[in-house]
Amino acid sequence: MRKLTSAALLCALSAPGLAQANCGEVSITEMNWASNTVVTNVATFIMEQGYGCDVTIVPSDTVPAVTSVAENGEPDIVTELWLNSAGEAYLRLEEQGKVERLGKVLDPGGVEGWWIPTYLAEEHPELKTIEGIMANPELVGGTFNNCPDGWGCRVVSDNLVRALDLEE
């Protein structure tokens, strides 16, 4: 048993060395939000330490990253992408085989929407619709907390606020 354990350990320790020979240079995006910084750093660590890659971190954002992949085939790895902000462009790249989705980093989270606290929805079920909120603005404090400037959800929310005439 001891020989088998030693052999397994030797194989496990030598496997990254075998992978290192073929890795080369890899570019990985880093977006400007906290979850992506974590994912990018974990991916960088794995690529460098596990596969011996020479990693270059490329500052980016959703739309520039998708555009760069479409036009230049780089960066090699986009670690976190909000598909609602990438639009049809990402889906076309996926259909063309230019990108491959390897996992869901935020699964089951990462859902965008307009939210109210659970207790408020339970106390006032009419607030579960935008019409209910518009009819009872005092129940939500008359405020709307939007996404940060530059994010896709900010553009969507700003347009919805205007379309629903909520700017008052």
UniProtKB/TrEMBL annotation:
Keyword entries, A-Z: Signal
Domain ABC-type glycine betaine transport system substrate-binding as annotated: residue spans: 25-166
This protein's GO CC annotations: ATP-binding cassette (ABC) transporter complex
Entry keyword annotation includes Signal: yes
UniProt xrefs under SUPFAM superfamilies: Periplasmic binding protein-like II
Superkingdom assignment: Bacteria
GO molecular function: transmembrane transporter activity
Signal sequence annotation: 1-21
Descriptive protein name: Glycine/betaine ABC transporter substrate-binding protein
Species this chain originates from: Marinobacter adhaerens
